[in-house]
Write a structure and sequence with these properties.
Distance between the termini: 29 Å
Strand content: over 45%
Helix content: under 10%
Shape: globular
Number of strands: 19
Structural class: mainly beta
Largest sheet: 18 strands, antiparallel, barrel
């Protein structure tokens, strides 16, 4: 039972880590993925009526640490199909993932590299294409797109575009990830020797900043006691770049088996409401609960979120979802993600906002401390605002190798 509890605790850490680079420690990791299924099956349309193979996609990542310096990077190569009829294929540096195979709205990382220096204690300066520095809680992702626990984000809503036009829209871009493709610095004031309780400040100059349109991101996170973590982040952009974005987050760790997370964001600060015909000015909020069932090796984490375009003719979008995981043994893990999403609509049109349902069960077997294999099945049905219905499903298989130095 003790091993079960350790596994569950590690799983919770992986789903809720804050402020890490892509790899959290000095190591090498390689993930090999392949999948097959029906990427598009439109009701009444037999144009895609056979199984398709996504190919083989390999993602290798390396992180090296010295006393004052860290470098980490990753590269994805694959042999994905160029189109779903299989008329051509190419071996290339790719952003394809199981999500693009399903026709969903997420990409992998063709490559990334990060450099971090620590000139003195508790102070870091980083420059990279995927720093992944973040504060506070946020909607669940389950991991990066190339790992088995990854799943659709915010019910697989699409961001941007006019509601009820041709997509199920309502995804909100929370500013909790304040330093990603950026040059950034952060300083942590520890209230104890282990920095378990702390106050962290961060600033970043994001990619594509110019002297004419100079942007600075800023973030603060405070954990004064075990119970409470609060965070605020702001991504500044001028009107031409859709206005500044504000994020606030709160986490309450009541016990090791129960916590609550909540977040709120406002995008497009500085844009006049009358100029917001494309939905750039909007707000979003959400909350999640983590609950472990006593001494059982079982936990769940449901969440709910809403977004509103702050434009009088657009309605709210809402999604709900969650993950359940059962650690059968210390080496075998069974889990699933499911979500339901109702898109925003334009009240001037005689259409609703569309609907998405997604379910993604997964099974992982840890062969040893370095090797694990996973099998994942995913099904999604999407009803667009024009009442077209798409049913998609695929099987995916992963082999992950991880070795710490």
């Amino acid at each position: 039972m003790k091993k079960f509890l350790i596994v569950i605790a590690l799983g919770a850490i992986l789903l809720n880590f804050v402020g890490a680079q892509i790899l959290k420690g000095q190591s090498v990791q390689n993930t090999l993925y392949t999948g097959l299924g029906l990427p598009y099956e439109n009701d009444g349309d037999d144009g895609h009526d056979k199984f398709n193979w996504v190919g083989i996609i390999d993602t290798i990542q390396v992180r090296l640490d010295w006393q004052w310096f860290t470098i980490d990077g990753g590269l994805s190569w694959g042999l994905p199909e160029m189109d779903w009829h299989g008329s051509d294929a190419a071996f290339k540096n790719t952003e394809s993932t199981q999500f693009s195979f399903m026709g969903e709205n997420r990409k992998g990382y063709a490559s990334y590299v990060n450099f971090v220096v620590r000139p003195f204690k508790n102070f870091e300066v980083g420059a990279g294409t995927r720093l992944n520095w973040q504060v506070g809680p946020s909607p669940q992702t389950g991991g990066f797109p190339w790992v088995p626990l990854a799943h659709v984000l915010q019910g697989d809503f699409v961001g941007g575009g006019e509601p009820a036009k041709d997509k199920v829209v309502g995804q909100f871009d929370y500013a909790y990830k304040w330093a990603d493709t950026a040059i950034a610095a952060r300083y942590t004031i520890g209230f104890d020797s282990a920095n378990k309780h702390y106050l962290q400040f961060g600033v970043a100059i994001p990619d594509k900043t110019s002297f004419k349109h100079f942007n600075i991101n800023a973030a603060v996170e405070l954990k004064p006691i075990d119970l409470l973590t609060v965070a605020v982040a702001y991504k500044h952009a001028d009107k031409e770049n859709h206005g500044g974005n504000l994020y606030t987050g709160l986490k309450l760790d009541f016990t090791k088996i129960f916590n609550i997370e909540a977040w709120f964001g406002l995008d497009g600060i500085g844009i006049k409401k009358s100029d917001d015909v494309n939905g750039d000015k909007m707000w979003g909020t959400g909350a999640a609960v983590y609950l472990k069932f006593g001494k059982l090796p079982l936990w769940i984490k449901p969440e709910v979120g809403i977004s509103d375009y702050l434009y009088s003719d657009y309605t709210m979008a809402i999604y709900t979802g969650g993950r359940i995981q059962w650690d059968i043994t210390a080496a075998m893990h069974l889990g699933a993600w499911t979500s339901f999403a109702w898109g925003a609509k334009n009240e001037n049109w005689d259409k609703d906002g569309g609907f998405i349902w997604n379910i993604r069960p997964d099974f992982t077997f840890d062969i040893n401390e370095r090797h694990s294999v996973s099998a994942v099945f995913e099904y999604e049905t999407t009803r667009l605002p024009n009442d077209d219905i798409y049913n998609r499903f695929c099987f995916g298989f992963y082999w992950k190798y991880n070795r710490a130095f």
